[in-house]
Design a protein that fits this description.
The complex is a heterodimer of chains A (164) and B (152). Chain A is mainly alpha-helical and 164 residues long. Chain A contains six helices and no strands. The radius of gyration of chain A is 21 Å and the shape is flat. The chains are: A mainly alpha (164), B alpha+beta (152).
């Protein structure tokens, strides 16, 4: 079973590499710019994506009544003694405060990129307009992921705060 | 936002919009790359005769995505039934005009200076030779201008 799974993974990776190389070889500069924006901003969004995913898992535990403050203490690097007697929603608020600087940095950089990409379009098509637009569209994909996760987290926290 | 279903719907709509935008952008860049690889051919939009200067002015349009270099022009004059002028040809008058992608330029075909004014039925064949960056070859486009004929 393990061996079969390993072979399947290997096959999948080989296929991925093959088609990735084919795409890379036939890509236009704009598509490479798109990939650059996508992976660059995915890296930037990494703490947010994993943070919100962990927070959503923690909120599910809170709803089920099996939440452990240790998880929040680990994620936010706060002393456990401070968190032990807090309700689940308050713990979630600690975690969200931990993610806030990443959020501001991420949205700030995306806004900067948006301005930089829009400015030449408004000025009437300079040399790098197409490439910058590609970077912007690539960056828009992880931004939507971050924004959606953030919205869902806020909605879940609000729903839990109403029931608690 | 307090509603989970609402958050999901907003995220989905945004994701669709971003996917649409990114897909359209990639498609546009692909088709532009494909179009740039097609060598252009100039199109003569109009020809007008200027009797005072003895010129036929051609409006040449470059419909492609590559610049064209118009190298030289030739004029072949064929007299109609009303003309007393003899047929003549002016070959390889240097032009050296760069026609950028998607733009229109005016090319003046100078007729023989000592010739009479054009009469109805006279035919001026203007040939423009051009090159494009994808090939060192010389290409030619010939426009037949029949004087006194109605435009279609």
């Amino acid at each position: 079973m393990r061996k079969a799974l390993a072979w399947l993974w290997f096959l999948l990776l080989a296929l991925f590499l093959f088609f990735g190389a084919a795409l890379f070889a036939s890509a236009t500069p704009e598509e490479l710019a798109f990939a650059l924006g996508l992976f660059g901003f995915l890296l930037l969004a990494n703490p947010l994506l994993f943070g919100y995913a962990g927070l959503l898992g923690f909120l599910a535990e809170v709803q089920a009544g099996t939440a452990r403050p240790e998880r929040v203490a680990e994620a936010t690097r706060t002393p456990l003694a401070l968190l032990e007697n807090l309700a689940g929603v308050a713990l979630a608020a600690f975690w969200m405060r931990e993610l806030a600087p990443y959020r501001y940095a991420y949205y700030g950089l995306f806004l900067l990129l948006l301005l930089v990409a829009l400015a030449p379009q408004l000025a009437g098509g300079l040399v790098f307009t197409g490439v910058l637009t590609g970077v912007l569209w690539g960056a828009a994909v992880p931004t939507v992921l971050v924004f959606g996760l953030e919205l869902v987290t806020l909605a879940r926290v609000a729903a839990l705060a109403q029931t608690a | 936002m307090r509603n989970i279903a609402g958050s999901l719907v907003i995220s989905l709509v945004l994701a669709l919009l971003v996917g649409l935008g990114a897909g359209a952008y990639i498609q546009a860049s692909r088709s532009q790359a494909a179009l740039v690889a097609v060598p252009p051919s100039p199109v003569v939009l109009s020809a007008t005769y200027k009797p005072d200067k003895k010129q036929v002015v051609l409006e040449v349009h470059n419909p492609g995505y590559l610049p064209l270099l118009l190298v030289d022009q030739s004029v072949v004059f064929t007299p109609g039934p009303e003309s007393k002028e003899k047929a003549y040809a002016l070959a390889a008058v240097p032009l050296n005009l760069t026609l950028p992608a998607g733009q229109t330029a005016r090319v003046t075909l100078a007729l023989k200076p000592e010739s009479e004014a054009l009469k109805a039925g006279d035919v001026v064949a203007g040939t423009i030779t051009y090159t494009h960056p994808l090939s060192p070859d010389l290409y030619a486009v010939t426009h037949l201008f029949k004087y006194g004929e109605e435009k279609r």
